[in-house]
Every structure is written in C-alpha cells, then in structure tokens.
Design brief:
With 604 residues, the chain is mostly beta strands. The protein contains three helices and 37 strands. It has two domains: 231 residues, Tachylectin-2, Chain A (5 Propeller), CATH 2.115.10; 238 residues, Jelly Rolls (Sandwich), CATH 2.60.120.200. Strands 30-36-32-33-34-35 form a six-stranded antiparallel sheet, with no helix packed on it. Strands 7, 8, 9, 10 and 11 form a five-stranded antiparallel sheet that branches. The chain binds 2-acetamido-2-deoxy-beta-D-glucopyranose (10 copies). GO terms for molecular function: hydrolase activity, hydrolyzing O-glycosyl compounds. It comes from Zopfia rhizophila CBS 207.26.
Amino acid sequence: MSDMQLRQLTSLFPLLAIGLAQQSTITNPILPGFHPDPSCIYVPEWNNTFFCTTSTFNWFPGLPVYASRDLLHWKHVSNALSRPEQLPYLGYINRGQSGIYAPTLRYHDGVFTIITTLANQALPRENLTRWDNIIFNTKDPYGEWDDPIHYYGPGIDPSPFWDENGVAWVTSTFNSSGVVHAPVNLTTGEVTLPFKWLWIGTGGAAPEAAHVYKKDDWYYVLLAEGGTREKHMVTMARSRSLHGPYEGSPDNPLLTAYNNTESYFQAVGHVDLFQDGKGQWWAAGLTVRAGGEYAKDPYHANFPMGHETFLVPVEWPEGEFPNFTNVSGTISGDFHLPQPSGPETVPEQGPGQLVDADDEVDFEPGSQIPPHFLHWRIPHTDNYKVSPEGHENTLALRSSMLNLTGYDGDSTLGRGQTFISRRQSHSLFKFNVEVDWKDSLVRDSEELGIAIMQDQSQHFDIGIVLLSSTEPKNQTSGIIWQIPPTESGYINETTSLEPNGPPKPYIRFGGIGITGFRRPEQTIWVEEVTELPKDFSAGPAGTKDEELRVFWYTRGDLLVPIYSGTTVGAYATSNGRYGEGAFETYISKWRYIGIEQVIEESKQ
Ligand SMILES: *[C@@H]1O[C@H](CO)[C@@H](O)[C@H](O)[C@H]1NC(C)=O
Ligand SMILES: *[C@@H]1O[C@H](CO)[C@@H](O)[C@H](O)[C@H]1NC(C)=O
Ligand SMILES: *[C@@H]1O[C@H](CO)[C@@H](O)[C@H](O)[C@H]1NC(C)=O
Ligand SMILES: *[C@@H]1O[C@H](CO)[C@@H](O)[C@H](O)[C@H]1NC(C)=O
Ligand SMILES: *[C@@H]1O[C@H](CO)[C@@H](O)[C@H](O)[C@H]1NC(C)=O
Ligand SMILES: *[C@@H]1O[C@H](CO)[C@@H](O)[C@H](O)[C@H]1NC(C)=O
Ligand SMILES: *[C@@H]1O[C@H](CO)[C@@H](O)[C@H](O)[C@H]1NC(C)=O
Ligand SMILES: *[C@@H]1O[C@H](CO)[C@@H](O)[C@H](O)[C@H]1NC(C)=O
Ligand SMILES: *[C@@H]1O[C@H](CO)[C@@H](O)[C@H](O)[C@H]1NC(C)=O
Ligand SMILES: *[C@@H]1O[C@H](CO)[C@@H](O)[C@H](O)[C@H]1NC(C)=O
C-alpha cells in the first residue's frame, strides 16, 4: 500500500472521532498522474467491481484498465492495447498530440467493450480517416483484450448506448459541432449510416466526450464543452426519445472549475456517470492540479501532474438533472462509499499493482516487464530483454538511433526510441535506477540515462554521454519543427568517421520544453555538460538526501501536459549515429518512491 492510500485511510479517523459516523471521505485525484478522460463502470456480475480506463495518446501499452471495490484502491488489472500487432499504425502517427483519444468503457451482455479513436491530427479535418474509430472487446477484464475492430465513423470520443432492442447507438462528437449517433455492431464494426444529430450543446467550444444514459424515462446526453482547459465544463440535456429533440438543463454548466479560482483542481470536465450497488451515483472526470493562476493563463501554468482522474459523489433525484459535488482534494459528506474501504478489497486477479504504488523492480529471471511500464509509441520489443544470460536481474536495453527528441520532435515513422518508463504519480517522488555505462558506451554520442517525458517536444534528460567535443550544438529555437523527414521516411544510417581522440564520458542534462501551447517559436532547448565525477547518483532536489547534489533544475511549466501527463524512465540512444542497436546496456534496481501528493494550493 502506498503513502497516499495510507493517508486516505487515516484521514477517516478524525471524522469518526467527532461522531460524524454518516460521513464518508474520498481523496482526489483517484487516478493520479497521466490519467486523462476517464470512463468508469460498476459491474455487479463481476463481484461488485468498478472498472475505469483512460486515454493514453501515443504511449504503449495503452488503455489501462483499473479495478476497485471501494472506489479508493484502484488496481491496474490489464491493458486493452497490449500487443504491438493490435495497432501497428500507432507507431506512425505524426503529431505529438495524436494517438488514442478518450475511450468509453462499458459492460453489456457478458462483454466488456472499450470504444475509442486513434486520432491522426496531421490529416485534414475533411478526411475522415483522421479519426480511426476502434472497438476492443473482452470477456475477461483481467486478461488479454481482443484485436480492435475498426468502424467508419466521424469524430472522436465514441460511446455506446444500448436501446431496448439491444442495438448499440454510438455517439461521437463531430467536427467541434455537437453530438451525432448511429447504430454500430460492436462485434463486426458494421455501421448503419447516416450519423444523425442529437444535440449541439450549449455553445461552448469543442463539445466532446458525449455519453447517453437513461433514467426515470428520460434519455440524458452528457457533454464536455469549453475545451479541455480553463473553460472546461459539464453540460447535460434530456429528451423523452433517444433520438431527441434534447433540451439543455437550465442549470448548465452542471459542473466546472471555471471562475472558481479558489480551487486547486482546475479544468474540470469530461465526466462519465455510474451508479453503485447501493444506488449512489458517482462521476469520474478529468482535472488538473494547477491552482487559480491556471484560469488566467492555462498555457503558462505549472501543472506537471498533467490530466488526472477525479471522483465526486452525485445526487440524482428522480425526474431531475443530477447535482454534482465540486471537485476538491478531500471530499467529505453524507454520501455512502460502496463498502468499507481497505486494501483487502483489491481484486486478486490481474497482473498489475495499485495505481500509485511505488516500484521496486529487479527484473528477476523469468519475470515480465510490469504492465504499468510505458514506451513512447510502439516499442521494438527485441530492444528490451529481462535478465538475459550473463546479465541476470537486469533489463537489457538495445539502443535506438533516435533520441527522445527524434529528428523532428513529433514523429518516429515507425522507428523505436528505446525508452521505458512509468507514470509520474506523485507531486514529489524519487526515481532511481542503476545503469551500466562503462562496458556499454564506446563511441562518440552514445548515451544512456533517465528522462522525464511528456512527448518528443517536451522532455528533460539526464544522461551519461560519450563526447569527443563539448562544443554546444547549434540548436536554435524552433529547430525541431524545421527538419523535414527524408523522402524514404528514414534518416540514413550515418557512416561518419570516428572523430580524433577518444571520446570522454560526460553527464549531460538536456531537454526541450515549450512555454505556451505548441508554439514552435517558444521552444526552449537546454543543454549542459559536466565531466563525469567518479561516483555519482542523480535525484530530485529538496529531499534532504545528503548523497545528492543539485546539478540542474528545470521548471515545471516547460513540461506542459497539453492533454496527457509525464512519465519517468530510462533511455539508450546513439543520437542519430551508427544504426539501430549500436550498443546494449543493462539497467537494474528500478525504484520509484512516491513522496508527496499535493492536493491544495500552498498559501504562501
Ligand atoms: C469540418 O470542419 C472543417 C473546418 O471547419 C471543414 O473544413 C470541414 O468541411 C468539416 N467537415 C465536415 C464533414 O463537415
Ligand atoms: C485521407 O488520408 C489518407 C491517409 O493519408 C489518404 O490515403 C486518403 O487518400 C485521404 N483521403 C482523402 C479523401 O483525402
Ligand atoms: C452483429 O453482427 C453479428 C454478425 O453479423 C450478428 O450475429 C449480431 O446479431 C449483430 N449484433 C447486433 C446487436 O445486431
Ligand atoms: C465565468 O465568468 C465569466 C466572466 O465573468 C462569465 O461570463 C461566465 O458566464 C462565467 N462562467 C461560469 C461557468 O460561471
Ligand atoms: C461549486 O462551486 C461554485 C463556484 O464555482 C459555486 O457557485 C457552487 O455553489 C458550488 N456548488 C456546491 C454544490 O457547493
Ligand atoms: C446540490 O447539492 C448541494 C449540496 O448538497 C445543495 O446545497 C444544493 O441545494 C443542491 N442543488 C439542487 C438543485 O438540488
Ligand atoms: C470478491 O471480493 C471479495 C472482497 O470484496 C473477496 O474476498 C472475494 O474473494 C472476491 N471473490 C471473487 C470470486 O473474486
Ligand atoms: C547557428 O544559429 C545561428 C542563429 O542562432 C545561425 O545564424 C547560424 O547560421 C547557425 N549556424 C549553422 C552552422 O547552422
Ligand atoms: C539516403 O541514402 C539513399 C541511398 O543510399 C540516397 O539515395 C539518399 O540520397 C540518401 N538521403 C540522404 C538525405 O542522405
Ligand atoms: C538527437 O538525435 C538527432 C538525430 O536523430 C541529432 O540531430 C541530435 O543532435 C540529437 N540530440 C542530441 C542532444 O545529441
């Protein structure tokens, strides 16, 4: 059990002590770190278990599935996208903020379904292949999911609603102009065209994440509007017929943090509703921990935890629109949690760990790479080997030619970037891993290290690199946007001569960041090199760890998690030279320790 869960439990005691036995408490975010766009369900048939999934954009494996019975302890139990062959095209998607968009998770007739979109923002809006809509099914949420079924549909954020004949009407939010729906056969992908308009929303920007629910003889459409930043909000409309016309609630928006600059939890929206076995309604949705400044200027705000998942209780009186609780770090009230909370309620099945658990991974012989470890795009799986012979209890990394920036900052065209990571799940954390560079790095530019990464245009790396010269590279602002891919789509393997003199090891702190929303002219490149001291370790500042000295700082607002969040992990690259697999190296003793979860704005 991790620090955060401990605090969630202990925070119950003061309340009980003063006699408010009816009160319940939940602590947000329930899925901390990179967990945008949640969709959650309650499945009585599966031992009264709640399941959630979230967006993963270009990360692999994708679409993590979390299970809980108390709504407080969430265990990672599978990844719907777990095999490169399920979606090879993910490796070729161009723009950094493309990839797997908001999924919807549902259970119907013994089948779990995740329906989502592989978005390719590089294609024009008129081209519907920009939105590759896909369906993942499984009969066992703790096991492997089927290969995705592709269907022809416009827009993003699909969500099924089953009518009384068992027909799944799939909503999509289309071209920023409202909600459409059509019947889709979720086992064949067959669509009954055309998609018909349901509701245009209340006029907020970018209507998305629509879900349809039926309650008390009303059909409700739930929507996110205002864009996924400071004006993000939840709106609803209802109709007596599934096909409309829908009429908006007079109280819209029903939930938002906009104008609530007191709240540390901003960008609230993109919710899904579900009801537990006791009849209590809940909303899971997207938020960022950013504080009031975010409302004024989200593009320069500091919220390195990215898009996270909150949970709030919802009152939904008969015949009325639901009444959401505002989002905050600690929510206490006279709502009822589904059952007494405790780690013993965590499902036994499934390979993963609690969503915010620490890592103590030793890559023992016969073990697997843990299911919560992440690669940027589709990995070249033979670049990662657990405990190869002669290097037991290590993870062998075969270097990639591409470094984490890649050659244009935004695509890899199918090439791998050797990087293995996990989500940053805590505001303050410590990550360390042992690296073996002495026997691995031989030639100029060969490099291995650790990085905190949001995407190819936003990451900071601290590595050991062999360099023949430390002349600063002529990296100018915006350069990553200007190098076009070669005609063949691949950079030619360089045959450059070995430079004169043996290269020496340096510690290099390097990285790239953007202040402002994907504005190339605001790209900042940093690069600092220091001769490698004899003994060293690298870690976060301010942890009072005597062994650590501060090399460099980076500002959190240079890692703007536009839609996603950050991961931390290890990389190995030859920085564009010598071909793929130029060297092999071994990492071991992988440790991630969550130190603190900040859930309110500091008042200093
Ligand atoms: C979607 O919107 C874009 C931009 O406004 C427009 O060019 C395009 O024609 C629209 N597509 C459809 C199918 O309506
Ligand atoms: C849409 O994009 C795909 C992929 O680039 C391309 O093959 C196709 O020709 C485009 N279709 C239209 C109508 O432009
Ligand atoms: C989906 O298609 C399959 C195969 O054609 C069919 O057996 C099934 O009944 C269809 N499902 C629905 C809900 O129509
Ligand atoms: C937020 O404040 C602005 C400016 O005062 C106002 O126009 C808007 O309606 C408010 N939005 C909400 C959701 O309260
Ligand atoms: C939620 O916060 C808003 C301010 O943004 C406030 O007007 C509203 O009363 C709050 N709702 C509840 C139920 O506390
Ligand atoms: C919504 O809930 C809040 C907090 O329980 C309550 O003060 C408010 O009156 C409710 N609003 C409606 C419309 O029921
Ligand atoms: C169901 O959940 C309970 C804990 O809530 C656990 O003790 C039990 O083993 C579970 N049963 C199955 C079949 O998973
Ligand atoms: C290096 O960058 C400067 C702009 O900062 C530019 O004027 C110069 O031409 C560049 N040199 C090379 C070799 O690209
Ligand atoms: C890459 O190599 C091919 C064949 O070896 C050659 O035709 C092409 O010009 C090279 N491209 C670049 C950008 O060097
Ligand atoms: C990253 O790799 C590219 C080639 O893919 C290279 O041009 C660039 O210099 C490398 N970055 C560093 C810091 O070495």
